[in-house]
């Protein structure tokens, strides 16, 4: 309240504000902490995951004592420890086309802390349709990005990326790795922008796209104009309701068969693979991760061919064999299965959930990463 730009009136605005944090992971952790500390009156938290020890390197709202707990419960306890007066509304659900618009419409502003394209486009489209600003952020390895989408007169996320990339093409930070402090920087920027929008002060990142390079400690700003032909926020929108963007296997990835009809690439669960191994009819188990990942944990008897090398090493595999492909969590292996089947390896299938699911369901003695 000592800041003349805020004062008592501004502090009351913060108290009256309702902010929805979609995800309480790497980005949502610092953002929610600072919003609660700033006195935002109501925080909505959307997440369906549980705290894992591998989260703690970057998801600072959780601690070692929270491993195994619901992320919502862990985050709620920490936020109330900072500000007992904050009202927290928890939504333990995966964001989907059936619930996103209803969730977004209940709040004044959305802070996007998602880590996958399915949720990112749902958040964007719901914000545009509901007319809610979206304090957006993204992280990958050593680079972060931030902007404010869906503000009056400003662009939305689709003005930058009109359509999602094919599933599995871009690895998540859980697969590719991320510098632990990076989401802290970007999440704090998101919280800053949310506070500015609530208070109506300063120059929010509307029509401006901020890029942060942690290795060079360098910020760059790009101009991002509103696209009049944007499918959701343009002059004549063609997207007026939410739709799902399927993910591999669990989201029914579809591929085109030679007849042009859609068919789902087959998947195999860890339990089914273990049963085949125990019965002595094990398929070829193909690991398409990188060598350093294979060194951390592996399925016994698996063969390592990194995804980037697979196109030139197809001859090392027999087209007549049953091949079960896995990566860390299923994205890269789904791309590998599509590649194999396109080249005549009709017995290729994806291991649902990847090596992480194998460790969870079959061999918990192995290290996770």
Could you please describe the fold and organization of this structure?
With 369 residues, the chain is an alpha/beta fold. It folds into two domains: 217 residues, Rossmann fold, CATH 3.40.50.720; 113 residues, Oxidized Rhodanese, domain 1 (3-Layer(aba) Sandwich). It is built from twelve helices and 15 strands. The strands form three sheets. It has an eight-stranded mixed sheet, with helices on both faces. Strands 11-15-14-12-13 form a five-stranded parallel sheet. Strands 9-10 form a two-stranded antiparallel ribbon. Strand 1, helix 2 and strand 2 form a beta-alpha-beta unit.
Strand order of the largest sheet: 3-2-1-4-5-6-7-8
Task: Give Rg in angstroms.
Answer: 22 Å
Strand content: 15-25%
Average predicted local confidence, pLDDT: 91
What is the level 1 CATH name of the largest domain?
A: Alpha Beta
Order of helices and strands: HEHEHEHEHEEHHHEEEEEHEHEEHEH
Roughly what percent helix? 25-40%
Reconstruct the topology from this structure.
Layout: H1 7-16, E1 18-22, H2 28-38, E2 42-46, H3 71-82, E3 87-91, H4 100-105, E4 109-112, H5 117-130, E5 134-140, E6 143-149, H6 157-160, H7 173-176, H8 182-199, E7 208-213, E8 218-223, E9 254-256, E10 262-264, E11 267-268, H9 270-278, E12 284-287, H10 291-296, E13 303-304, E14 323-326, H11 331-342, E15 348-351, H12 354-361
Parallel strand pairs: 1-2, 1-4, 2-3, 4-5, 11-15, 12-13, 12-14, 14-15
Antiparallel strand pairs: 5-6, 6-7, 7-8, 9-10
Short description:
By secondary structure, the protein is of the alpha/beta class.
């Amino acid at each position: 309240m000592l800041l003349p730009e805020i004062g008592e009136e501004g502090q009351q605005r913060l108290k009256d504000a309702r902010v929805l944090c979609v995800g309480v992971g790497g980005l949502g952790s610092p953002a929610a902490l600072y919003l609660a500390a700033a006195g935002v009156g109501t925080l909505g938290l959307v997440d369906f995951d549980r705290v894992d020890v591998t989260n703690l390197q970057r998801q600072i709202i959780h601690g070692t004592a929270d491993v195994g707990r619901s992320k919502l419960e862990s985050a709620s306890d920490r936020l109330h420890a900072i500000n007992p007066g904050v009202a927290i509304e928890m939504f333990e659900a995966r964001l989907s086309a059936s619930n996103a618009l209803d969730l977004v419409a209940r709040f004044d502003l959305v802070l996007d802390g998602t880590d996958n394209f399915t949720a990112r486009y749902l958040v964007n489209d719901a914000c545009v349709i509901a007319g809610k600003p979206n304090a957006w952020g993204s992280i990958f390895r050593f680079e972060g990005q931030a902007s404010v989408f869906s503000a009056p007169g400003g662009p939305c996320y689709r003005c930058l990326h009109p359509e999602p990339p094919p599933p599995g093409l871009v690895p998540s930070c859980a697969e590719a790795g991320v510098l632990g402090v990076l989401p802290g920087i970007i999440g704090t920027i998101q919280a800053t922008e949310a506070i500015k929008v609530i208070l109506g002060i300063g120059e929010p990142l509307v029509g401006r796209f901020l890029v942060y390079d942690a290795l060079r400690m360098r910020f760059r700003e790009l101009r991002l104009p509103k696209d009049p032909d944007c499918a959701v926020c343009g002059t004549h929108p063609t997207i007026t309701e939410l739709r799902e963007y399927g993910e591999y296997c669990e989201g029914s990835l579809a591929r085109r068969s030679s007849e042009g009809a859609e068919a789902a690439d087959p998947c195999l669960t860890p339990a089914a693979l273990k049963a085949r191994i125990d019965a002595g009819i094990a398929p070829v188990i193909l690991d398409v991760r990188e060598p350093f990942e294979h060194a951390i944990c592996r399925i016994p008897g698996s063969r390592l061919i990194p995804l980037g090398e697979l196109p030139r090493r197809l001859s090392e595999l027999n087209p007549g064999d049953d091949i079960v492909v896995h990566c860390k969590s299923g994205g890269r292996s789904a791309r590998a299965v599509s590649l194999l089947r396109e080249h005549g390896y009709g017995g290729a299938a994806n291991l649902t959930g990847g090596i992480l699911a194998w460790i969870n369901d079959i061999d918990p003695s192995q290290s996770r990463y």
